[in-house]
Amino acid sequence: xxxxxxxxxxxxxxxxxxxxxxxxxxxxxxxxxxxxxxxxxxxxxxxxxxxxxxxxxxxxxxxx
Length: 64
Fold this sequence. Notes:
By secondary structure, the protein is mainly alpha-helical. The chain contains two helices and no strands. The chain has helices spanning 8-27, 34-57.
């Protein structure tokens, strides 16, 4: 997925909403559905993009 053109705010919002939706799916007993797996993968990708952007702009934290 091409997340380079998506703003950091939108990435943060999407990640938060994906986490909330995964929580609802778990509570509803739908966490084993294919959509839940795809949503989890999407949330992982968003998290990686968010962390990479943070590391790129905050080099003093690169050693942690």
